[in-house]
Structures are given as C-alpha cells and as structure tokens.
Specification:
This protein has 198 residues and is an alpha+beta fold. Helix content is 16%, strand content 61%. It has two helices and ten strands. The longest helix is centred in the first third of the chain and has 24 residues. The radius of gyration is 23 Å and the shape is elongated. The N and C termini lie far apart (49 Å). About 10% of the residues have low confidence.
C-alpha cells in the first residue's frame, strides 16, 4: 500500500516536471491573429439630460499582427452597453447605442520563459453614439432628439495573455476609447480568446 502511494506521488511529480519543462520551452507564437472578448462595459463623462444608465455587457473583436517578442499592431471594433436616458418620472425617453473603431500599437512583455505575457495598447479610436428616441413626449421634455455623434480620441488599454497551445491563448484586458461630452468615454473590462495563425 505504501509502495502504491509512493509510486503515485512520484508519477505526479514526474508529470508536473514534464509539464513545467514543456511550458518553459514552449515558444509564444507570432503572426496574424483574431481575437474575441466579452465583458463589462461602462460609459462616463457625458452631458445627457435626465437620469442615465450606461453599464452592461460589451464585446470586442480585433484583427492584428504580432511581431516577436515585444510588439504588435491591431484594428478593432467594440460594442458597448446601450445607455438609457430617463426623465424625472422614470420614463425612458431615449436609447443611445455606443460603439467604437480603433487602431493601435501593442507593446508586449513576455514573462521569462513562461506562456504568460503582459501587454499595453495605445492608438486612436473613432467613438460613436447613436441616439434613438423611445418616447417623444419624454424626449421633448428633456430636449433630446434622435441624432448621431462621433469624435476621434485616444485609445489605450492594459492586459495579460496566457498561451494554452501555440495557436490559442486566453486573455483579460481593460480598454478605454476617449470621447467627448456627446459620446462619453467608453470602457470595457473583458476576457476572451486569441487565435494566432502563425
């Protein structure tokens, strides 16, 4: 019985060492990649009248090219949660659809010989807010009308990535598209998958 336990422990240690060695020598891939992320979005710095609610689920998709080992570039599209504008009675006057397009450089910091890496992104974003009236009476009282607003601003973010296999990685990140008072600043905290073509 003692021999079986010892054998099981030694087998476990051997497997752990083999796995650690595999991770230590695994090269993090480079080349074209696509990425999809889902998470929590938030909108700040707007001058909408009445009361607003802007938090909810958002999503992001990116296409990029990764140069080893420290730099990449990407273009992306992000859909943020809609903003609800209500009057003082709680009647929903309008809905704002929030989204952005971005192009960014990506600085990458590999962590030793592990499959982990940290990254930071900086670039520019086209920030958009599309206002649609839901209740004309409530909207008129607030001075809100259907309209489209857009601006170009700074785009930046931080994150971490873990390579599961050479072509597939998990990531977590935060990004911000900096807008103005008609579009707001749009944030997304997300997690997702990156597929690297290599």
């Amino acid at each position: 019985m003692q021999g079986n336990k010892l054998l099981a422990k030694l087998t476990g240690v051997a497997l752990l060492c083999a796995a650690s060695t595999t991770f230590a020598v695994m090269s993090i891939p480079y080349g074209w990649y696509i990425e999809g992320n889902l998470g929590s979005s938030n909108l700040t710095n707007t001058d909408y009248p009445g009361s607003t609610s802007s938090s909810g689920i958002g999503g992001n998709a990116n296409l990029g090219y990764k140069f080893m080992p420290y730099f990449g570039t990407e273009i992306g599209y992000t859909q943020y949660a809609n903003t609800s504008i209500k009057n003082s009675k709680g009647t929903k006057a309008a809905t704002v659809k929030n989204y952005s397009y971005d192009i960014a450089g990506k600085g990458i910091l590999p962590i030793a010989e592990s499959p982990f890496e940290l990254f930071a992104k900086i670039g520019v974003a086209r920030v958009n807010a599309k206002v649609s009236v839901n209740n004309q009476t409530a909207a008129t009282g607030l001075g809100v009308s259907s309209s489209n607003h857009s601006t170009t601003g700074l785009y930046y973010g931080l994150g971490a990535q873990y390579s599961l296999i050479n072509a597939l990685a998990l990531n977590v990140q935060w990004q911000r598209a900096q807008g103005n008072s008609t579009t707001g600043n749009e944030d997304l905290f997300s997690g997702g998958l990156t597929f690297i073509f290599g």
